[in-house]
Amino acid sequence: MNLITTRSEAELLAFEQREITVVFCDLRGFTAFAHSAASAEIVDVLGAYHRGVGPLIVEAGGILERFTGDGLMVYFDGPPVREQALGAIVMALQMRDVAGELASGWRRRGHHLSLGIGIALGQATLGPIGFEQRRDFAAIGPVTNLASRLCADASAGQILMEERLYSDLHDVLEAEPLGARWLKGFTAAVNVYSVRAVATKRTLTAPRRPAEAASQWH
């Protein structure tokens, strides 16, 4: 079921500005793999990947905005902002662990795949896009582009985030500053950090939306 079917008619017709945390992730090496592997093997790898990360999205209360084959975008929009952002990072770390376990099995089958993740915090416009026969509820704005570019810049097993997110959460994160990077489509360099771990024993997640989150996986 698409997320849009879980919202009221009034919500579907309205656009709103909201502070969100966006997580983009995809598999490094997937394009080369897809060019050489049999269709059944590609479907098997994608199925294992989606089954691995999907429950983490639901558990964290994230909203799965889109699939793009091996890539996906998840956002968190529940207040308070600090809690939603930390929930997104905790989820990303869990995704990295799951993908690392899957990658070990894939390597034994000759497939060199690994997960890269980008995370950004900022304002977005939330609302319906599409046409009469097909509409999706989408998050639109520079924050989604930034998360996407950070994901593209991440190396195998790396989680990259931007400076505002680091500034808001530096007291509970173990992160390595990587300096300023020029990301495609941005007119200024972006200060980038690599997330290693959550430094606190508290595991916070964004407020859950069980009906919305679970509906995306049925």
Short précis:
The protein has 218 residues and is an alpha+beta fold. The protein has 7 helices and 8 strands.
Structural features, described:
This protein has helices at 9-13, 30-36, 39-60, 81-108, 142-153, 163-169, 210-215; strands at 16-28, 63-68, 71-76, 114-131, 134-140, 159-162, 173-181, 190-198. It has 218 residues and is α+β, with helices and mostly antiparallel strands. It has a single domain (3-203), classed as Nucleotide cyclase, GGDEF domain (Alpha-Beta Plaits). The longest helix has 28 residues, at 81-108. The chain is globular.
Average predicted local confidence, pLDDT: 86
Q: Give the tally of structural domains.
A: 1
CATH superfamily: Nucleotide cyclase, GGDEF domain
Largest sheet: 8 strands, mixed
The computed structural class is alpha+beta
Strand content: 25-35%
Query: Order of SSEs, N→C?
Result: HEHHEEHEEHEHEEH
Rounded to an integer in angstroms, the radius of gyration calculated over CA atoms is 17 Å
As a percent range, the share of helical residues equals 25-40%
What is the first-to-last residue Cα distance? 6 Å
Q: Write the CATH architecture name.
A: 2-Layer Sandwich
Under CATH, the topology is which? Answer: Alpha-Beta Plaits
CATH first level: Alpha Beta
